[in-house]
Amino acid sequence: MEKLRDLTIEKTSKTPHIELKLESGEISLTGKSLPENATKIYEPVLNWVNNYIQQAKPVTNLRIRLEYFNTSSSLWITKIMKALTRINNPDYRLLVHIYIPLEEYDDMRDTSDLRDSFSPITDILQDSIPEVSLKLYATDDSSKVIRDALVLF
């Protein structure tokens, strides 16, 4: 197997900044994701993740800090999350960090069950081999984290 290396994909006006770091177990998607060809952007990421899970770190952090994304991006992000649930060690942990605007965060906090708001994500993560935590962050207009909550542990 070829040695896995860090992968960085620079952002464009329609694609996010993507960083995949082997040694720290950090995977981050930041910006906007509206590519005309999502496969071109996300297939290398999914390939990297599929190789990473064979040599995963004890803690993997998936950070999703997307202002907005289209349906095709959503499908690829789902594939990436699903792949990460196959890290084959129940003692390992997958932390999914989701950053959203403060107003949306407050609206969700006012609902009767915050977990219902994330049921599509929790459905993906429910049969995970590693332990999974989902953490939600409220951000202000300058993307500074104002509040956070552990949604699922």
In short:
This protein is α/β, with parallel strands linked by helices. It contains five helices and seven strands.
Describe this protein's structure:
There is one protein chain. With 153 residues, the protein is α/β, with parallel strands linked by helices. It has one domain (7-152): Transcription Regulator spoIIAA. Helices cover 31% and strands 35% of the residues. It has five helices and seven strands; from the N terminus they run βββαβαβαααββ. It has a seven-stranded mixed beta sheet with strand order 1-2-3-4-5-6-7. β2 (17-21) and β3 (26-33) form a beta hairpin. α1 packs parallel to α2 (71-84). The mean pLDDT is 90.
Topology:
Elements: E1 7-9, E2 17-21, E3 26-33, H1 38-52, E4 59-69, H2 71-84, E5 93-101, H3 102-109, H4 114-117, H5 119-125, E6 131-139, E7 145-152
Parallel strand pairs: 3-4, 4-5, 5-6
Antiparallel strand pairs: 1-2, 2-3, 6-7
Q: How many DSSP-defined strands?
A: 7
- Identify the strand order in the major beta sheet: 1-2-3-4-5-6-7
Shape: globular
Derived structural class: alpha/beta
Rg result:
15 Å
> What is the beta-strand fraction?
25-35%
- Write down the secondary-structure element order: EEEHEHEHHHEE
Number of alpha- plus pi-helical segments: 5
Largest sheet: 7 strands, mixed
Query: Would you tell me which CATH topology applies?
Result: Transcription Regulator spoIIAA
* Ends apart, CA distance between termini: 34 Å
Compute the average pLDDT: 90
CATH architecture: 2-Layer Sandwich
- CATH level-1 class: Alpha Beta
Number of domains: 1
Helix content: 25-40%
Q: Unreliable stretches, pLDDT < 50, 5 or more residues?
A: none
